[in-house]
Amino acid sequence: MPDHDVIVVGAGASGLRAATLLDAAGLDVVVFEARDRVGGRLLSAPTSGGVADLGATWFWDDESAVNQLVERAALPAFRQHLAGDMIYDAPGFSPRRLDGNQLDVPSSRLATGMAAVTDHLAAQLGPDRILFGSSVDEIVVLDDGLQVRLANAARTARHVVIAVPPALAVSRIVMSDLDDAVRTIAEATPVWMGTTVKAVAVYPTPFWRETGLAGAAFSHVGPMRELHDMSGPGGAPAAIFGFCSPRVGEPAPTSEAIIEQLVRLFGERAGTPSDVFVFDWRDEPHTSPSNVEALSDYTTYGHPVFQRPSMASRLHWVSTETSTVAPGHVEGALAAAQRAATAIIDASKGVPA
Q1: End-to-end CA distance of the chain
Q2: Dihedral sign for Cα atoms in the order 70, 321, 344, 37
Q3: Which of 11, 213, 249, 331 is the most exposed place for a label (fewest CB within 10 A)?
Q4: pLDDT above 90 for 261
Q5: Shortest CA distance to 52 belongs to which of 138, 137, 110?
Q6: pLDDT over 70 for what percent of the chain?
Q7: How far apart are CA 3 and CA 82, in angstroms?
Q8: Which residue, among 8, 59, 41, has the nearest Cα to 320 in the 3D structure?
Q9: Does the model's pTM come out above 0.85?
């Protein structure tokens, strides 16, 4: 008999959502997480008066799964700040103020940070079901399930859920029984946020709002390309964040370079942040494979090979990249988890696929 009904690889949003759905259905589930924390690409760093989201930040009104989860968990949501003018920054010119905020769209955020989503899911599952520091080395097909091998241990399960980016999974985990067609697509699938460098500057007050600025900017000068207000509800804590676009192989910008750009865009008051975070997702070995910057074919997102189980119909793909609904968003992660959980629950009841 297998040790478990299901082993989930990865304790991000998709993995934990799949695990809680399977647990609620009465199946024996364990989650292997290589890091020492839950969340994956949901990462909220403490700062003065609140948190700064270094990973996923927003969710949108038409995303039913994440909105329902936030409502059921009573997580404190608030609307993204939109009011004010934006700034456009072109080479050879001074930054130019444009009428209105043409960059941001209506969306919502969590006052306690997006990692509150995975914290909530982990609490539902219980700490004894999540094994930290558990990096999976190999998955092997057996007669009655799959064996998951780690450095110093191995466990078996009827089903395995892969809740990490497909390209990372096939680069880090030996899966000799994986079909070549699936492997080829998985190897080519870009990692959402995998090449992103995210910078956040925290301030005592959202001073840019005092002059009618939205905190939004688009820059062709850099190092940040796209900037947004990241202040909490009511403007506290006050923050601006930006997505950086370093060239392939180029290091992440320094905090000094980030502050210099913010001063150019928003004035001298931007020169004295209380905190600056520069987080390079390329350097996260449990998110991004070593060739992450070479992956660019986003047409593989939601590919049909991810919609059906692999390896004797027992290996299920659930990271956000595999979703046909909102791939790249938290919504996509939750939708993929629902798909896989439904398939596993049906299989446990003998329902034909």
Answers
A1: 22
A2: negative
A3: 249
A4: yes
A5: 110
A6: 99
A7: 51
A8: 41
A9: yes
Q: How far is CA 173 from the centre of its chain?
A: 20
- Among 297, 288, 299, smallest CA distance to 168 is for 288
User: How far apart are alpha carbons 53 and 44 in whole angstroms?
Assistant: 4
CA distance 28 to 327: 28
Q: What is the pLDDT of residues 274-333, one digit of tens each?
A: 999 999 999 999 999 999 999 999 999 999 999 999 999 999 999 999 999 999 999 999
Residue 145 clears pLDDT 90, i.e. is over it:
yes
List beta partners, residue 148: 139, 155
3-state SS track over 8-56: EECCEHHHHHHHHHHHHCCCCEEEEECCCCCECCCCEEEECCEEEECCC
Angle between helices 115-125 and 64-72 in degrees, nearest 10: 60
Q: Is the peptide bond before 46 cis (omega within 30 degrees of 0)?
A: no
Whether 229 and 216 have beta carbons less than 8 Å apart is answered as yes
Q: Distance between CA atoms of 303 and 259, rounded to whole angstroms?
A: 40
Taking alpha carbons only, the member of 259, 319, 297 closest to residue 13 is: 319
Token pair of 85 as six digits: 């003018």
CA-based nearest residue to 213, from 105, 99, 106: 99
Which pLDDT band holds residue 49 (cuts at 50, 70, 90)? Answer: confident
SS3 346: helix
Instruction: Dig out the tokens for 347 from the structure.
Output: 């299989």
The pLDDT, as a whole number, for residue 349 is: 87
- Residues, the chain, total? 353
Q: Which two tokens stand for residue 26?
A: 């009465």
pLDDT-derived band at 353 (thresholds 50, 70, 90) equals: low
